[in-house]
Each structure stands twice: as structure tokens, then as C-alpha cells.
Design goal:
By secondary structure, the chain is an alpha+beta fold. The chain is 35% helix and 15% strand. It has helices at 22-30, 57-60, 70-76, 95-108, 127-136, 147-150, 164-172, 179-202, 214-221, 237-242, 255-264, 277-284, 286-295, 328-353, 389-408, 445-449, 467-470, 496-500, 504-519, 524-532; strands spanning 14-19, 39-42, 52-55, 81-84, 87-88, 91-92, 113-118, 121-125, 153-154, 206-211, 229-231, 313-318, 355-356, 359-368, 381-384, 423-433, 436-437, 568-571, 578-581.
């Protein structure tokens, strides 16, 4: 349920930038001959010509809509150009669109706090930039206003007559305007300039909304498209919200919006004004009630979160109609492809941004034939993420089988063969989340492998760390993931004799802990140490603290993962051995 957040007492300038039919623009940049023609981008799906995911404004004039499929679009507009999304691994390949999106984000981020909301929309907090402009170069002091800024739409401003641009100019340059409106004017000039920069550098056009909070900015950006911007002065907020259908408001398109319609007779956001905050709290709880009371008045304290990179990575595919998956073998086939795609994106993120993900999640949609409970949702399942295509594939299949068992109840899941128990999968996706920057010190062991004396080495992470080394980070507690054997542990390295003179007291303490864990049934990782690490092996890391991984909670009931501190696996490309550092503290089994 929505939660009310207090709005800052200081005026904020927030912009919502929305790319115009973004997928079409990306294809038009690749094929300039498509510019000016009715065009649509279709999904990878041959059924009825594929589903439309983006429609150019030229095609919309003929009545083509995103809800149509390719065959229907051709009936409405015979001359429409249908461009199929690129295909890789038997599914849509969106990497080209993601890369184009990153181009736009890098430009927009030059002027303020930037939050990447989706592949084709961005929030900007331009408060500081607007304040600076107002102090150093206020709009009323400008001799000329860019043509792009003069094409702005200002809510409440009369746009009739032949002097629309002159009216906009006068509004932007009012010396008697209050501080909030002056900041909005500065924000409008900044966004107009950013829009021109985006077009010059990428050939893409965008639309924008400029207001005092994210909610109003998003509403405004959709009001005048394409390639235009809309400004929402504080005095016009109630007019904007008064006639807005309740279902058009973010977070009110589902059950909460339906409840407002059926229980309170609320059809527009303005209808909420007739209810007191206490009444709304009585009906929907304190937090949601206050949130509803606030949005009716255009109040929202939601901050722009600095996020230039995606919070998660995902790969999915739908299987509509007769294409539904009905066997474990077919599910495994598609999961392997999805995991391969996900692994490629994870490695790219690691190489380019030095980030690692910690959680793997599987989502699916399914239905059961001849079942009165056919609307039961397929449960999502998560587990700690292990890097490597094969490991991700293995874990994803285990997650699917766990979800399927829960979905089917007492029915035994067939793990082989070409028959199912009446279940059908219409959508599959895997995602990686809890993405964080690689912690400092992760790769210092590489100095040791490259022949540096451990007595002089430091655990501080080098700035030019090898991504090949980092790519072998893995969150796994199973010994099958380790590449050591007993002979490899006795190889001589520089400083070997020094390290053998370790503190025997610490060794004895660690040995006692190891025996205690083993007696309590600690998993195979400790049996591995018992077999492969002799009593005389090094027990103390020189010049630094043990390397620790960022903890991730394991899903209950998921085999092969430990609850507690996770190991970090690092590899030298020269030696090809895995070395594990394990935080010696009790495991919560």
C-alpha cells in the first residue's frame, strides 16, 4: 500500500523526461528511411504478426494502438512498417535499446540528480541547478530565450491567439513572479537545453514535465507529446488533478483505485477532496489514508533517488496460447537460454560498472487445466546468486521445481519425460537483484598470486582491478564449486616459508571451532577443509583482515546454500586456482 512521505518545505524543481516512442526512434536511427513513415516495433512472436510494443505518431494517426498485433495494425494502416525486435537465444534481444537508453541518461545526468525510472524515462532533481541559475542568470535578464523553451506549455496560461510563444516568454521572464515560479522557469530553460543536447547527440526526441514533485512532473510529461514540455505552476495543481480519472494516478490503477470507486464513489482525484484525512485513514489505514489526502492536493515528498544504473537485471519470455510450456524438459530448455542472457548482462555490469548481484529470483505465470483454482498464482522463488551460467541455470531450475511443487500442492512434480500433471507455463523470467558495488579489498589476493611478498602487500583494492578476477566472485556454500585439490594446496609461492610460521594458538582455536561445527552437522564445506588443508598449512592472513562477502539471506528450503556468512571465490587467470576466504564464525543452520 502507498505510504505518505512528508514534502520538503523548500521549493523543489523536478522534471520527468519521457522518450517519445523510444523503441521506434532506436529503429529509425538504425534505418533513417523509416523516419516520417507510420512505423511500429513488434515483439518476437509470429502469432498474428507479433504484439506491438511501440507505435510511431504517424501510425497513431491511422488508429494503430499498442494493444494491437501486427496483422491487425496492417488492416488499420496497410502502409505501416513493422520492425521486429532483434532476436537472440530464441527471445527478444533488448540490449540495443538498453544501450541507447544509457546514452540519454548520461546526458541528462549532467545537470542534476538523476533517477533512471525505466528504459525510456528519467526523473531529474534540478533544484540546485535552478537555484544557481536564478542567482547568477535569472530568466528576466536573458536577452534571448531558446525556441525550444518557447514551445513549452504552461498550465493556466492562455494559449489562444497568435502570440502563444510571446505569452510563454512573458511568463518565463516575469520579474514579479514568486520564488517558486521563478525556479520553475529556470527548470524549464534547463530541461529545454537538455532536450536539445539529447537530440544533437543521439537523434532522439523526448517530452518532459516540470513541477515541484515527481508525481506532478510525471503527469505533466504525458500531456503534450511528442518533443514538448509542460510546466505545472503551484496555482494550477488542483485544476490538473480535479478532472484526472482516479485510475490514471500512479498506484491507483489496481485494487485500491477500484475500492475508491466502489466504496467511496471516487472517480477523479478531485473527488477525494470531499473526504477528511480522518475519514480516509479510517477506511484505508493511517499511512494510505494520509497519502490519499495528500495526492488530492498535489502533495508528494517522494525523493529523486540517484540511480544511473538499473537496480536489477532480468530476462524473460512469454508463451501464449498453444506455445505454453507443459513439461519440465521444455521449461529447462528455455530457462537455460534466459539464464545465459542474464549471465551475459551480469558479467557486462561487472566489467563496466564493477557491481555484483546477490539474489536470483524466478517468476512464472501458469494455469492448471480442469481446476477450479485456476487463478492461483505461481509463487516467485529466490536464492543467493552464484556467478556462472551453469550455476545460474541449475539454481533457476531448482527454484522453478520448488515453485511448481507449491503451485500444484500435493501433486508430485514430474522431473523427466514429456508429460505434465495438467499445468501450463505461459511466462518465465529470471532476475538478479541486490546489486552493489564490489567491496574494497576483494581482489587483493591477486597481488599474492602475482608474486608479491605477502608481508608487504595490502588488502586495499587496486583501482585497476582485473574484471576477469572479479568475474569469478560466487556466492555458494557447496564444495562442488571449489577448484582446489590436495596437491594444489601444497604448491610453493613466494613467502611460503614465512607464512608457515603462523601463530599456533590461533590455529588451535580455529581447529576447535572447525571440529565443533563438524560435530553439529556443518555442511560439506568443512569436510572439504578437513580433507584438503593439513594441520601445518597457513592459518593467518598477513597484513589485513579476512575478506568478507556481503551477506545474503538464503531462501528457506533451498538446498546447497548456507544461511550465514557467504564465501567469496577469487581466481588468478595465471594459475587457475580458486582460493576461498571464510569468515570463521558460527553458521546458522
Amino acid at each position: 500500500m502507498p505510504v505518505a512521505k512528508p514534502e520538503s518545505s523548500d521549493a523543489r524543481i523536478i522534471a520527468h523526461v519521457d522518450m517519445d516512442c523510444f523503441y521506434v526512434q532506436v529503429e529509425q536511427r538504425k534505418q533513417p528511411d523509416l523516419r516520417g513513415l507510420p512505423t511500429a516495433v513488434v515483439q518476437y512472436n509470429s502469432w498474428k504478426g507479433g504484439g506491438l510494443i511501440a507505435v510511431s505518431y504517424e501510425a497513431r494517426k491511422f488508429g494503430v494502438k499498442r494493444s494491437m498485433r501486427g496483422d491487425e495494425a496492417k488492416q488499420v494502416c496497410p502502409q505501416i512498417q513493422l520492425v521486429q525486435v532483434p532476436v537472440a537465444r530464441g527471445k527478444a534481444d533488448l540490449n540495443g535499446y538498453r544501450n541507447a537508453s544509457s546514452e540519454v541518461v548520461s546526458i541528462l545526468a549532467r545537470k542534476g540528480r538523476c533517477e533512471r525510472a525505466s528504459i525510456d524515462e528519467v526523473y531529474l532533481d534540478l533544484t540546485d541547478a535552478a537555484e544557481t541559475m536564478l542567482a547568477e542568470m535569472p530568466p528576466e535578464s536573458l536577452e534571448e530565450i531558446d525556441e525550444e523553451a518557447l514551445r513549452s506549455h504552461v498550465l493556466g496560461l492562455n494559449e489562444g491567439g497568435n502570440d502563444v510563444k510571446e505569452n510563454v516568454r512573458m511568463w518565463l521572464c516575469r520579474s514579479e513572479a514568486d520564488h517558486r515560479d521563478k525556479l520553475l522557469a529556470c527548470g524549464a530553460l534547463i530541461v529545454a537545453e537538455l532536450g536539445m543536447q539529447v537530440f544533437r547527440e543521439t537523434e532522439f526526441t523526448c517530452s518532459a514535465g516540470i513541477a515541484h514533485n515527481k508525481m506532478l512532473a510525471k503527469l505533466a510529461s504525458a500531456m503534450n507529446k511528442p518533443a514538448q514540455q509542460t510546466i505545472v505552476p503551484l496555482s494550477c495543481v488542483r485544476g490538473l488533478l480535479g478532472s484526472l480519472p482516479i485510475k490514471k494516478m500512479k498506484q491507483l490503477g489496481g485494487k485500491l483505485g477500484s475500492s475508491l470507486q466502489s466504496d467511496l464513489g471516487v472517480n477523479t482525484v478531485g473527488d477525494l477532496l470531499q473526504f477528511s484525512e480522518e475519514k480516509l485513514q479510517e477506511c484505508y489505514g493511517i499511512n494510505t489514508g494520509t497519502w490519499l489526502w495528500n495526492i488530492a492536493r498535489g502533495i508528494s515528498g517522494e525523493e529523486v533517488e540517484v540511480r544511473l544504473l538499473p537496480k536489477s537485471h532480468g530476462s524473460g519470455k512469454t508463451f501464449p496460447g498453444p506455445g505454453a510450456l507443459r513439461t519440465i524438459a521444455s521449461v529447462e530448455h528455455w530457462l537455460n537460454g534466459l539464464c545465459d542472457d542474464l549471465d551475459e548482462r551480469l558479467r557486462s555490469d561487472l566489467e563496466q560498472n564493477k557491481r555484483i548481484a546477490h539474489t536470483l529470483t524466478l517468476h512464472a505465470r501458469a494455469y492448471k487445466s480442469n481446476d477450479s483454482d485456476s487463478h492461483k498464482k505461481f509463487p516467485s522463488k529466490s536464492c543467493p546468486l552464484r556467478y556462472g551460467t551453469a550455476k545460474i541455470q541449475e539454481d533457476a531450475l531448482n527454484l522453478f521445481q520448488a515453485g511448481l511443487r507449491e503451485y500444484l500442492g500435493s501433486i508430485k512434480v514430474k522431473t523427466q519425460g514429456n508429460q505434465s500433471n495438467g499445468w501450463s507455463i505461459t511466462s518465465l523470467s529470471v532476475s538478479a537483484s541486490k546489486i552493489v558495488a564490489i567491496p574494497t579489498g576483494t581482489c587483493s589476493i591477486m597481488k599474492y598470486f602475482h608474486g608479491q611478498d605477502p608481508s608487504t602487500s595490502s588488502l586495499k583494492q587496486p583501482e585497476d582491478m582485473s574484471t576477469k578476477d572479479a568475474a569469478l566472485l560466487s556466492h555458494s556454500g557447496s564444495e562442488s564449486c571449489l577448484g582446489l585439490n590436495s596437491r594444489e594446496t601444497h604448491k610453493q609461492f613466494p613467502g611460503e616459508e614465512t607464512r608457515k610460521n603462523c601463530d599456533m594458538h590461533n590455529l588451535n582455536q580455529q581447529e576447535k571451532k572447525r571440529k565443533t561445527w563438524e560435530d553439529q552437522g556443518t555442511p560439506s564445506i568443512l569436510r572439504f577443509f578437513k580433507r584438503h588443508i593439513p594441520a601445518s598449512s597457513p592459518c593467518k592472513q598477513e597484513q589485513g583482515e579476512p575478506i568478507q562477502d556481503i551477506g545474503v539471506s538464503s531462501s528457506s528450503g533451498f538446498p546447497g546454500h548456507l544461511n550465514g556468512p557467504s564465501p567469496v571465490y577469487l581466481s588468478s587467470p595465471d594459475i587457475g586456482e580458486f582460493v576461498q576466504f571464510w569468515e570463521l564464525q558460527p553458521l546458522l543452520l
